Records
---
Amino acid sequence: FCKSKCFYCSFSSFAGMQSLHGRYCTALQKEIRTHHRKQQGTPLATLFIGGGTPTVLRAKQLSEIIDMCDQVYGFEPDAEISIEANPGTIDVADLQILRDSGLNRISFGIQSFLEQDLLELDRAHNSAEGMRAVENARHAGFDNISLDLMYGLPSQSPEAWQQNLEQAFTCEPEHLSLYQLTIEKETEFYRRLQKNQLALPDEDAIVEMDEVTELLCEKHAFSRYEISNYAKPGFRCRHNLVYWHNEEYLACGAGAVGYAEGIRSKSVEDPLSYCVKIEQEKDVIVQREKLDCEASFRESVVIGLRLVKGVSEHRLFERYGISLAEVYGTHLPKLVQGGFLEYSHGYLRLTPRGFRVANTVMAELV
Ligand code: SF4
């Protein structure tokens, strides 16, 4: 659920629908219990409550979901328990309830601290609310705060991006996710682009923004560990590292994508259909895909190259019993000779040049 639909959003999210929130939470708890019957015994190392905007639900509803996970699975002693939150959907009392319920990491969808950008994106909060949300989270005892910001926004200059990022550092976050705006089909921005009503920064401006990011992150001792993610030492997102290592995870909720027992699955997106199916004890999964060994190998390489460290040749061989050379033949040496990929300490990784055209390099390896 979300308060409203942002102009760039292609995620599975639904504005409004407040009357369904309670019913949805009940259904979600039921699904969590059902999953447990299938996957007995292992306490959770990480839990990630993502969206949409989870914090449009009441804090008490969210804390009941966390309690349910604790009752049926339990958490490892140092489990990372994260939530995505949007400023303007959460106040200091809510934050305190969430912190007391065991959440120890919060990721704010700030996107920009500049009023003009927030209006352009049709975000449901303003700049002051963004700053206040972070302050309130600190006050509630969160010591692992991540901020999501976007660059390459309509009419954005490298100077404006610098100002924005500097503002983010004044909040002293532990983690930053910095995403370049991409225009996805069926969004308001896509429609505007088709009508020539969207002025996006050119490639040179994007390169300058990347340089600004690199300089400021270095200055504040943030290291880049994934294409879009930067952290202070000890604050990499453990949950997301599971995705990038292409390891398995359970997923519950409408539109949730999970990966268990070698099968990638996706649940029905529409929240009402999701509730009805759960209530009638029907299967909520609408897509199932089991990749063969080579396809899964390729997927692990492509996802793993998102990490600055790259993919471990040894781990790939241990997991799949095949090597990079066997799968890619002469294709890989060409990308290495072209300066897009390199080998370092047993890892295959993107070079700085490769990072700038990461999508193209990855498309070659799928
Ligand atoms: S808050 Fe996030 S999920 Fe919701 S509409 Fe905006 S971009 Fe989409």
---
Amino acid sequence: MFARTTLRLASRRTVAISRPSTSIAPVTRATFTTSIKRSDPEVPVVSYEGGNRTEETIRVPAATAAGPVTPPGTDEEKRAFPLKPSVYEHITPTLSKFLLTNKVAIITGGGRGLGLNMAQAMTEAGCRGIAIMDVQQDLGDKAARELSEQTGVDVRFYRVDVRDGQAMSQTVQDVVDHYGALDILINAAGIADSNIKAEEYPHDKFRRLIDINVTGTFLTNQACGIQMIRSGKGGSIINIASMSGSVVNYPQEQSCYNASKAAVVQFTKSVAAEWARYGIRVNAISPGYMDTALNRVPALDAQKRIWVDHTPLKKLGAVDDLNSLAVYLASDGSSFMTGNNCLIDGGYTLW
Ligand SMILES: NC(=O)c1ccc[n+]([C@@H]2O[C@H](COP(=O)([O-])OP(=O)(O)OC[C@H]3O[C@@H](n4cnc5c(N)ncnc54)[C@H](O)[C@@H]3O)[C@@H](O)[C@H]2O)c1
């Protein structure tokens, strides 16, 4: 649908900009012209492969609903390692089912936290292509660059808001055009509000969270599901819900978040039933309290002690504690599993 215009820069950087035209010769930045109107909404894409950075812009036909996401705290940084081909020579049939060799994965909310760590796991398990989608440009760009540098995998970053259905379908189409496939979606984009009593919950805040966590899940699943159905090869979709979709957290009031994650679980089951006929498996991961930037804020210190006390394993989950489950759900190791809500919570929901 979009032809790419490639710009060679003095710094050896390559900038490719998509435009609604069939082909165009390479030009310098100084003389570059495009048919993209200044007022047209654009989704920036940054791509890393073999040490080369590529920037491009894909145009979307409608206004994007992008909005800032406050980034509290920081994550413990972990690096990814490349999967060496020699592994394949010695692997047993059981372990080979867990490999994601040559698969292409989209990870929303992959700029940091659980999404970024699962993106790392996808590369370590053999994926050849990773598309990170996030609203935070700096985080997404850094994540894509480092992941590609560490593993040699072709990683793209799209600054896109999961609430924007047209932008989502356009970017997912671009992923399929670029890699020629789409096998896995990990839908990790999400926000949390807590310590807001239901009787005081501002209406616009409630709607915003539902829009990101629930509507965003639907729009992302739909855009990827359409491509997986079209390919005829099926795929695996993993929605990151929360144990808050199954229990009410204590002591903080967070009715909206809890309701949103219950919706994600039920949506996952519904669409799993619908799309089984296409070979698309859809499962949810429901984490307990995780030690991510979302929770690494001083205001939550006192509550965190209560969370740990109420968790049988007496700790928060590490930022990479979902990785192995994500690989399992993405891989043929779980080929008979769909519509499942996998609680991974240190036992919190047992009490
Ligand atoms: N951290 C926990 O304790 C915990 C527990 C249960 C479930 N979860 C869920 O796991 C997922 C990831 O959590 P995390 O701790 O890594 O959070 P995080 O805030 O560290 O990461 C979430 C990412 O999603 C992105 N994002 C937010 N809104 C977006 C939007 N509208 N469009 C695109 N990207 C958007 C953010 O920019 C961020 O990079 C969330 O869905 C969260 O609800 C987290």
---
Amino acid sequence: MVPVDPRNTSVTCPPGLGGCGHVDGKSLVTQATFRCTACGFTVNADHAGAANVLDRAGLVLCTAA
Ligand SMILES: [Zn+2]
């Protein structure tokens, strides 16, 4: 098992969705909107959080292979 910290998944620019991986609490504009402070990548916050959880667990790589 890969440890996943749910506190950071919602503030990480999701690499699995084309983001840069930057972690910044300010990127979470609202509970529903994520906009990266580093690259400007914008996505639904729930979508970003879910993508980061999957990415950390390695499931994205598994399913993409
Ligand atoms: Zn970014």
